[in-house]
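Can't paste images in this forum, so I'm doing it all in text. The chain is below; anyone willing to post the predicted structure tokens underneath?
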Amino acid sequence: MKLQNFDIIVVGAGPGGSIAAKVAAENGFSTLIIDKEVIGEKGRYKACGGALAWELVEEIDYPEEKIARVIESLELHHVDGTDYSKKGKGAVVWRSTFDQFLTNMAIDSGAVFKEEEALIDIKKIRDTHEIVTQKGKYSAKYIIASDGVTSPTLKLLKWPYFKSEDLILTITKEMKTIKSDIDDTLGNDTVHLFFGVKDLIPVGYAWLFPKTETITVGWGNQINLVKNSREEFKKFENLPFVRNALKNSTQTIFKPHLIPVGLRQQLYEDNVFAVGDSGGIVDPISGKGIPYAMMSGQFAIEAIKAGEKKDRLDKIGTFYRKSLDRRFLKILVAKREARDHIFQNDENIKKFLSLWESHRSSEIVMRKLL
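Text version of the structure:
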């Protein structure tokens, strides 16, 4: 098996990995991106609601024909019957379609892409890392670990894993139905979130995200508080509003998934970067991760570029952390601290939902409005 050499290897072709590969290639680095699955509209399924802010859609010029549904409001339901509404334009996408779009951007920028190549081993040999897949052997000075919360890359490198209180277990179902039923029961431009500390989910929420002719049904709870996930998920499905929305639908996919809601203890070591879910770079309150993954992938490459340009390779990790802190990491850390207070009881969660109607969650936390 002949060794192929690159400047940067990106493991995982999700949003963080694809943006890292795109930025790396644009800056003249020879770049390889590998993924264990097939990337394509009919490729891998990602258990993700797929909600995007409209600003992100415009920033990457994402084609409207690839959007599964344009959203104008977020409806927030407490199980005691209290409802809140947050206005704002967004989009719901299929992650398979979205991820393929970003991967194609990386390829168009000059990155080499290898799909269906799962990482088997990674070793540091002198100044480079060697990666072995079932199909090839590659080396690079820098590694971008963007292979998810259970990152095989970081596991092989023996990086510390997340604490149980920083992991959310989610269950996602895709329920096939017809567009008119979705429009009648959920509205034609609305996503729905459901809360209830005592009677639904202690630390987390559930959701109904409409796509064109499918409703993504999800539930997520802090993993160390889960006793019987299927029974707890069923409690959500049995809510009258949910039961009515799903009455004529057929299940096509059922998938559990982990979401990190707290940072890894380290985000950089020895020319290896953790980006996106691999680093726990996710909003601890909402679970939003796509934009943070994309930005962290970009910042990792910018840190490499700065370190090499200034001949300060010893400062690359510092450059990466400073960029993350400056843009959003301090806010995510503050949100993680606030999350415990928000989900302490139903009174607190309802106060938060009331504030969320007219404020950004970051504003609520940083201004200490709770």
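The longest strand covers residues 250-260. The mean pLDDT is 96.
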